[in-house]
Protein 1
Amino acid sequence: MNPKVLLTSKEIDIILHRLACQLVEKHLDFSNTLLIGIQPRGKFLAERIKSILKTEYGISEVPLGFLDITFFRDDFRRNQKTLEANKTQIDFLVEDKKVVFIDDVLYTGRSIRAALTAIQSFGRPAEIELLVLIDRRFSRHLPIQPDYRGRQVDAFDEETIRVHWSEHEQEDAVFLEETEKN
Amino acid sequence: MKELSVNHLLGIKYINKNDIDLIFETADHFKEVINRPIKKVPSLRDITIANIFFENSTRTKLSFELAQKRLSADVISFSAAQSSVKKGETLIDTVNNILAMKVDMVVMRHSDAGAAHFLSKNVKASIVNAGDGAHEHPTQALLDSYSIREKLGDVAGKKVVIVGDILHSRVALSNIFALQMQGAEVKVCGPKTLIPKYIESLGVKVEPNLRKALEWCDAANMLRVQNERLDFSYFPNTREYSQQFGLTKEILDSLDKEIVVMHPGPINRGVEITSDVADSQQSVILDQVENGVAVRMAVIYLLASKIK
């Protein structure tokens, strides 16, 4: 199966602006709010959202961190391969703050489960919300739902959703393709 | 994804440069973890580790235990002094009895060279060598290199001198292997009686003069004078040793560059290194201790992920 384009660069742009707008609607001046990109792929989306908040709404002081969940995953040793970590960069305490987790694709919910545990190492947040670009409906293993979603997608388990970002892969695009068999 | 090429860490000799790189990259992440307000991750919840120390140790044992606990492993620790080893039990029997209690990994220190290697061939668990006789002490060498990398940016191309009792030192041997593997140049310096006869066959030069050695190097690893291993007089007395091979502030300040001063601990203040040097800006002795926990977490995490 050839990759099918789910979202083009233009559509992604519109969606990102809407998501940023929804965030502002809820958090207003972001005085008590932190953005956390979930590593590795949530990082790009989180940076985009932050930049839109600055250019469109003049909100420049939102703290942005990146959380790696590798050591909190529930499939250690259940996976054939060693789980490789990414950089965590959270230079602030999350105690009593409103935290927004940002990730590109919400699938089984297990990454977010791990992130909910991992963030506790940095304090006790007042509340945690979840923003995702793609919500793979009907695929959840856990009772976790997004608060802000870019696009809802129905996909089979044998299919993978791949999000490309221009910072990393030349262009913004979202693809649906068959999962590569190892 | 990357993984270690080995199932046990028996010595630096048995691993390769890619393994060292992977351990250091992983240790970078763990160093960030142990500086968090809550310094613990749940990765090794279902792993049980036995620390078996047939020889005294404070910092290595503490460092391993802390690393294991920070990874949420279950830990049992055991010192030979209070054990059935005294009653005549063999090494394999002791360890197999411990493994019968469903232990996945064994960290062992033993006074005989090759003990960890022997164990890895005879018992079913992942083995980490925490020092075997005068053979190897791989995690110490890894944390030493990690500290050099942290301070100087890279290990490749750096010049490191190891000063002191090279003959009895497993730290020296593991360091030589680790540093050379990463492209550093190594010299040793110490009393002739404490330099092994064939050390040059490892590609290591001997520099008998401490000042010349220090002028040459980027980092100096000052080994402890191990009185407990000196079964007869290798040098007249500690005063003479410290005059010739002790690192003092005067020598350090007279060099035209800043070198990194390391020591694997425990320090004999005033013998191999003076107090003002040990506590100076150039000393990374306490960084080595902190890095020791991060590096050991990385080693244990990477080995544990290979336990099936």
Protein 2
Amino acid sequence: MTTPEPVLSVRDLVKHFPVTRGVVFHRAIGQVRAVDGVSLDLYPGETLGVVGESGCGKSTLAQVLLRLIPPTSGTARFEGEDLFAKRGAALKAWRRDMQIVLQDPYTSLNPRRTVGDIVGEPFDIHPEVAPKGDRRRRVQELLEVVGLNPEHIRRYPHQFSGGQRQRIGIARALALRPKVIVCDEPVSALDVSIQAQVLNLLSDLQREFGLAYLFIAHDLGVVRHLCDRVAVMYLGSIVETGTNEQIYTRASHPYTQALLSSVPVPDPTVRRERIRLTGDVPSPADPPSGCRFRTRCPKAATLCAEDPPALEVRASTDHPTACHFAEPPHLVRAE
Amino acid sequence: MLGESGSGKSVTAQTVMGILDAPPGRITAGSVRFRGEELLGADPERRRLLRGESMAMIFQDALSALNPVYSVGFQIAEQFRFRRGMSRKDATARAAEMLDLVRIPNAKQRVKEYPHQFSGGMRQRVMIAMALALDPDLLIADEPTTALDVTVQAQIMDLLDEQRRERGMGLILITHDLGVVAEVADRIAVMYAGRIVEHTNAATLYARPAHPYTRGLMDSVPRVDDAGGVRGAPLRPVPGLPPSLTAIPRGCPFHPRCAYAQDVCVDEYPPLREVEEGHAHEAACHFAERFVAEGPDRPATQEVVSG
């Protein structure tokens, strides 16, 4: 974290999706503001957790950063180079450096291809990484690294369990020796005992290969376990960001506080003060004026409707938070 | 009822409700008694009368549990019309009251809306309203919050707990989330490979788990209230995979994944039996007493393992 140069640096990233009406002439009648001004830095070898509830824009953020969909505006630099300006050969070469592990290990592997084909496919696209004769050995090595039996190279995805399939997805992401892996909810489809195995694997791989993870998740326990720094998203924007310790022990944004207090703790002797949010997340097509969170916020005042709070370090906090009334938690933490 | 996928939680619940798909399912042995009345083998018409009236069930996926082509009001009102003989108008008014009870804003207007017009949390509330309509004695909730975000999950669990208390209704909560059960359950049954492997009150279960599997589950969960220093320390997952239910290992079904397995575990199935006198603490492990006595500081089940 002390490394001065971030590997990935994002500024004011915006992604809007048009809402259209009409069959022949698609008239735009509105915008879904999926990502609305996100800035973040990811340093080599660290894990940055992006947490938020469904629809907060965390997966859209991942897709934009992987150049799977174009941004509406904003900049991103990968090792100092403009990510959104890359074209042709430069773009293809860059894709080796940033890979993704997807949530659903059942739909993200092609059922008609063997594990060897799936894990080896990155080498077909980037033949410079592994000469043809060497591929089988490389794939078997990768399977071994993620804890699968290298003998199973000819098996098909359906012959594996959910946890093992997720390992296949991880092996595929590792094939090209990337610098950054985006993990989009990599363990949320798995049972707890299997989830723990995969989390341990991700930690081991990070140490071994010096990977940086952009770790997208809704499970706050998992993020606390794995991440160095955490960014909390709500309706397309980051509302609070800080180190693991700052977020989990000194959260100052009411949304973060409510989120943390909503997570049930597996210990019946722990009784915590609950901050209950009412209602649902507003539609990103029609977000509230001012502070996005004000419609569900227990602290909301007239100021919040008029003036959107900036994400900045405030008098009462030691890390950036986007709330006019940010204050440390009274008793959000257990014990 | 706590357990991972395929441990038999839902099938147990479906058997109790009498909604198990049969065939292919077949109930080969055992007994289900409701207020002393044997349900297995009972007249299907009698079971139909009990469903909704005496026992009701809610499901994980509210969108597929609700009928998309009828308004939610119609679906709730149906019960009042056919079970209580109410007119359509009165039944719809009662349906709106039910929506209000589960805290759906503007219940009078929303009663006319269709399931797709509700958010995930609101749909779950609709299903709860439907289940509670005839004031059942028993509510079975099968993973009711698994598909929901944490802030909404907390709202739904509060609602279920409040309704249970106010109605004096029994609640069977089926979940895989150790946090959710810890917060609402009085007693917990842990299932593995189709059987209950441990059963006791919540406080005892978390303080002194008597089955290595229970302990393994607890060691697998990264906790949100963990002290900062713990970060980076590897979790201690249960090694291996749950068995296929077509090939359950002989002896103790957990023995291939258990760090404490002995010869006896391979040969003999450990029945569920009392472990601690006076604590109503049952476990299905040959070494349960030793496991409890050694306490939580006992060495980890196993270090980093691959599956």
